[in-house]
Amino acid sequence: MTHEPGRLYPLADDLARLLAPNPSPYTGEGTWVHLIGTDRLAVLDPGPADPDHIAAILAAIAGRPVDAILVTHTHRDHSPGAAPLRAATGAPLWGCAPLVIPGSQEAGFDADYAPDRVLTDGERVALGGTTIEAVHTPGHTSNHLCFAAGERLFSGDHVMGWSTTVVIPPDGHMGDYMKSLAKLQARPETIYHPAHGEPVADPQRLLRGLLTHRVQRERQLLRLVEEQAGDVAALTARAYPALDPRLVRAAEATALAHLITLEERGALSRVGDTWKV
Fold first, then answer.
1. Which residues form the Metallo-beta-lactamase domain (predicted)?
2. For the chain, how are helix, strand and coil distributed in percent, rounded to 5?
C-alpha cells in the first residue's frame, strides 16, 4: 500500500498517524508522525520542518490541546519539526536528550533541538489521556528513546517495520543496539508502531529475527577478516554483494559498528584502516 504524505490515517480511536514528505532509501516512504489521544493529544516525532508538513500536522490536530511533543531521537527526519510545531501549538517539547557529535561521519543530527524536558529511562508521564513511559534504547543513536503506552510501543528507528536499523559510529554502537533489542524482549508490549514502515503485530518474532541477523552478520565479518585482512570498504563489498549503490554508506557504517564491537571484545584489531585478527 502506498501512503499519501499529509493524509491522516487512523489506527485506533485514540491513535492516528500521518506521513512526512521525506521518502528516501533510508526512510522508506518517509517518517510517520503519530498522534496519541482523542480530546487531548501527544504528537510523536513531528519529522522535518517543512512548512506544508507542519500545516498538515496542525490540520490533523484540528484545534485540540496538545499536551506535549515527544521526540525519540534527534536525526533530522524526526526532530526539526518540533520547533515550529511548538511555536504553533504552545505545547512543550519532551523526549530524548540533545546530541551533537562534532566531526562525526553522521551529519544527520539536529543541532537545534532544544527540549523543555528530557525524559529518562522508565519515566512515566500522563499525556493524551494515557500514561506514556520512556524506554531508553541506545544503539541507533546514544540518545534514542522508545515510548510505551499500554500494549503499544512506539519504537522510533530502533525497530522499524520496513528495514533493519542503520548503526553509524561514533555515536551509534552495535553492542548497545543489541542490548537494547534484548531489553525490549523482556517487555510486555504486543504491537510496535515504528517511525518508518508498518505496525509490527508480532514484535517478539521480529526482535528474535533482528538479533539473529546481527549475530550472523558479526560472525560473517569475523570470518571475512580471518580469511583476508582489509579496510571497511573492502570488507563491506565482500559482505554485501550486489548492494544498491545508494546504500553503500549505510552498509559500511553498520559493518564498522560490528567491527568496533568485535574489537572491544578482543576478537579483532586494526592497524590504520586495516582490520585483522
1. 30-196
2. 30, 25, 45
Helix (H) or strand (E) holding 95: strand 93-95
Evaluated on CA atoms 38, 43, 48, 50, the torsion sign reads: positive
How many domains are contained in the chain? 2
pLDDT (0 to 100) of residue 1:
75
pLDDT of residue 225: 98
What pLDDT is attached to residue 107? Answer: 61
Per-residue burial over 40-72, b if 16 or more Cβ lie within 10 Å, else e, is: ebbbbbbbbbbeebbebbbebbeeeebbbbbbb
Measured CA to CA, the distance from residue 191 to residue 104 in angstroms comes to: 34
Domain boundary residue, one of 201, 229, 255: 201
For 69, the domain range is: 8-201
pLDDT at 106: 54
Q: Shortest CA distance to 62 belongs to which of 127, 18, 12?
A: 18
CATH number at residue 78: 3.60.15.10
Closest CA to 47 of 11, 83, 13: 83
Is residue 97, in this structure, part of any structural domain at all? yes
Residue 231 burial (10 A CB sphere; 0-12, 13-18, 19+): middle
Residues 136 and 38 in one domain: yes
**196 shares a domain with 246:** no
Q: Whose CA is closest to 183, among 137, 123, 140, 122?
A: 137
As given in the structure block, the three cell numbers for residue 42 are 501527544
- The pLDDT assigned to 35 comes to 98
Whether residue 192 lies inside any domain: the answer is yes
User: Does 3 map to a domain?
Assistant: no
- Enumerate residue ranges in the chain where pLDDT < 50: none
Those residues whose C-beta lies under 8 Å from the C-beta of residue 215, and which sit 6 or more positions away, are: none
